[in-house]
Amino acid sequence: MSTKKKDTQEKMVASRRRFLQAGIAGGATLATAAIARAEGDPLITEIQDWARYTGEGVDATPYGMPIKYEADVVRRNVEWLTADTISSINFTPIHALDGTITPQGCAFERHHSGAIELRKEDYRLMINGLVDTPLVFTYDDLVRFPRENHVYFCECAANSGMEWAGAQLNGAQFTHGMIHNMEYSGVPLRTLLEEAGIAAAGDLKDKWVYVEGADASSNGRSIPMEKALDDCLVAFKANGEALRMEHGYPVRLVVPGWEGNLWVKWLRRIEVVDAAVESREETSKYTDTLADGTSRKWTWEMDAKSVVTSPSPQSPITHGQGPLVITGLAWTGRGHITGVDVSLDGGKNWQEARLAAPGVDKALTRFYLDINWDGSEMFLQSRARDNTGYVQPTKDQLREVRGYNSIYHNNGIQTWWVRPNGEAENVEVS
Amino acid sequence: MLKFLKAVLLTGAVAAIASPAFAADPAAGEKVFKKCRACHAVGEGAKHKVGPELNDVIGRQAGTAEGFKYSKAMIGAGEEGMVWDDEALAAYLAAPKKVVPKTKMAFAGLKKDADIENVIAYLKTFSEGAAAEEAAEAPAEETEVAEAPAADEPAAAAVAHQPDHEGAFGLGRKATGDEVAAWDVNVMPDGSGLPEGSGDVLTGEELFAENCASCHGDFAEGVGNWPKLAGGMDTLAHEDPLKTVGSYWPYLSTTWDYVNRSMPFGNAQIFEPDEVYAIVAYILYSNDLVDEEFVLSNETFLDVEMPNADGFIVDDRAETEYPVFTADNACMTDCKDSVEITMRARVLDVTPEAGNE
Question: Which residue in B166, B326, B336 is closest to A389 by CB distance?
């Protein structure tokens, strides 16, 4: 672009800004709106820069990023949660997304020893233990097995964990953002186990697979053979493209419906064993301490859960009274969502929300409730139901069973207090 | 002869480029081989017949199968450098008498390229050196293709699929014992997987101070948000339980395994087994679980009693929660008399500041 042309553009932008500022200075917002309406919206009545000058050519960004105006729709970290970002977690901006698929670039990250750069060429996957033939696969080997595509949610067991003792973090991103939902392409774990042969394991009922990552944390988890042979996927693509480094490039394990820690990234080894390994991540972490001090282990399944993503503290109502879209996400690790109820009054009365599409097995479901908001205070809640007959409990119902010492698996009903000015706050109600 | 070999190689290269997507199929090759069986044997116990037996023919110098009486022409071709690689075999099987004019082989030749490639693939399944040779050849073929001006097509000619195991797809390869030993180092609760070795508390204290204390504190009490490894005994039923190796971890194997594989943070897997034993001994000592004379080894390992070993139950949600959290207990209208705010996030004020543009 020539300097002269750019100058002209800047002048025009500046002049439009002056016009708008004059309008605002001229009186209240209503008055401005009236003037705009009377004379017409300058965005329409005046020729805009983008209608006159050309935009960016192709290849300006060979791999496209969101436009700069969406720069706030990003993963966020809560610094005080962990000692160091290398062993930490951040949160998906669910308050700003719609639909069900999470773009990889804003899907939450959880690392125990940082995200590593592992080339496909350097990737090896070993299957050993109680198998007929211990095998090693390269990445090129993996992509020669018959492949499947599935959409699954991945939720960290600690999602909403900070909310156990009470309302803490003010935003759906922070309370419920340890979740993402992607379409995975990969090879069934079953296919790989059968390639190595599992006759050597004998009776499969009491057998496990121990899955382990290649990073320095050596995150390893034990998974019952039944689940390993059921629907686990050794995935190398998400949403059509290679996994991102932060999600385990080039290969991660997908364990549908089960807590995210089992979805081992940079998957390097699968060992068939005759007992759970009882690794750090399945004993000292990801276990749920009850009121009497005993702790549940092997709580793998993620129970039915939902949250209103908008309006919410980071997504207040800015348009005043009238038509309002209330929307949110629901999911269950034990099947699919059959319905979502929404309450505007803190759980006194409920009405059934509209599902954007029928519930999909172990994947996010988008729900909507389209209302005519009268501008009065609301206590917004949502309550998911799944095909097992399970209904999402309140936090108090959970505490009645588990006490206050748990961290993981908090699937209690969330409340947003929406004020007449449209702002929302994370609260708990009686 | 050299000129001739060049011609063969060129033909081979052209053939490779011309049929890039073709994948040689040993099973199909076995059927083709029926035409050859009258004179050639291959497989276990194969002996020379009218023609030489063909085990390990791939990669072998022409005219050199032990105990077979070749034509002078074939022996001569071999001495001039002819080796039964893909290209040479393909050319020979297409027109034997053109390639080695005075060969004894009476066969006129295979007409279809696919038959030739398939039968070569079949023969490769009986040739030990074939896989290695394929690997060595690959770069050369890539170079040829790269030089060819019109070649934006895939590179190598279809490589024979030669599994080394019985899997349905025959993909991957057998892991070597050393490979398994290098990666399979996890330790089970019963101590299996532990290497031989030992370490005492005082050695462990030194190692801990040097490698661990910057995060976990000199006495394993933890620094800042980093994990506390000691203390917290009998706090699990308290409002704010302190979960440490001593107060919470049910198995000592977990500690050994984690120190061995994942610590120190940022410089993992540097400890020798004896050092791991020593550090774990020190962590036990910090938790008052052993005295300072204690020596932890693969033999004393199971003597250590972990206080919270019986503190875990297997997931019981199916009994304690699922029967309760049902539609029967999910009211739709007039579910409560009043709704009062009992807790507010803004009062706590621990949410990070709004987005930084």
Answer: B326
Q: What is the pLDDT of residues B177-235, one digit of tens each?
A: 999 999 999 999 999 999 999 999 999 999 999 999 999 999 999 988 899 999 999 99
How far apart are the C-alpha atoms of A128 and A363, rounded to whole Å?
A: 31
Average pLDDT over residues B311-336: 94
Locate the chain B residue with the closest alpha carbon to A124. B172
The Cα A204–Cα A321 span in angstroms is 60
Q: B327, A385: Cβ pair inside 8 Å?
A: yes
What would the mean pLDDT of B66-71 be, rounded to a whole number? 84
The whole-number pLDDT of residue B111 equals: 81
* Average pLDDT value for residue range A111-124: 96
- CA–CA distance, B309 with B252 (Å, rounded to integer): 9
CA distances for B262 relative to A279, B185, B219, B257, B259, angstroms: 11, 12, 20, 8, 6
Looking only at the bridges linking them, the beta strands covering A378-386 and A415-418 are antiparallel
C-beta of residue B51 within 8 angstroms of C-beta of residue B92: no
Residues 6+ apart with CB under 8 A from B19: B113, B117, B157, B158
From chain B, the residues in CB contact with A427 under 8 A are 341-345
- Yes or no: say if A196 and B167 are a contact pair by the CB < 8 Å rule: yes
pLDDT band at A237 (very low <50, low <70, confident <90, very high): very high
- Is A277 in Cβ contact with B188 (below 8 Å)? yes
Q: Which of residues 4-63 of A touch B (CB under 8 A)?
A: none
pLDDT at B143: 40
User: Among A166, A174, A197, whose Cβ lies nearest the Cβ of B343?
Assistant: A166
Residue contact B183–A269, C-beta within 8 A: yes
Q: Which H or E run includes A365?
A: strand A365-373
Q: How many CB atoms lie within 10 A of CB B8?
A: 20
User: Rounded to the nearest 5°, which phi and psi values hold at A340?
Assistant: -135, 130
By CA distance, what is B327's nearest residue in A? Answer: A391
| Residues in contact with A59: Cβ distance below 8 Å, sequence separation at least 6, in sequence order | none
Q: pLDDT tier at A167 (50, 70, 90 boundaries)? A: very high
CA of A229 vs chain B CAs: smallest distance (Å) = 16
| Interface touch B330/A303, C-beta < 8 Å | no
Q: Which residues of A touch B171 (CB under 8 A)?
A: 137, 141, 144-145, 195
CB contact under 8 A, B320 and A405: no
Residues 6+ away with beta carbon under 8 Å from B170: B161, B162, B163
Q: Does A425 sit within 8 Å of B325, measured CB to CB?
A: no
Is the predicted pLDDT of residue B334 greater than 90, yes or no?
Answer: yes
CA A50 to CA A244: how far, in whole Å? 34
ipTM: 0.87
With contacts defined as CB-CB under 8 Å, which chain B residues touch A341?
330, 332
What whole-number distance in Å separates Cα of residue B311 and Cα of residue A234?
34
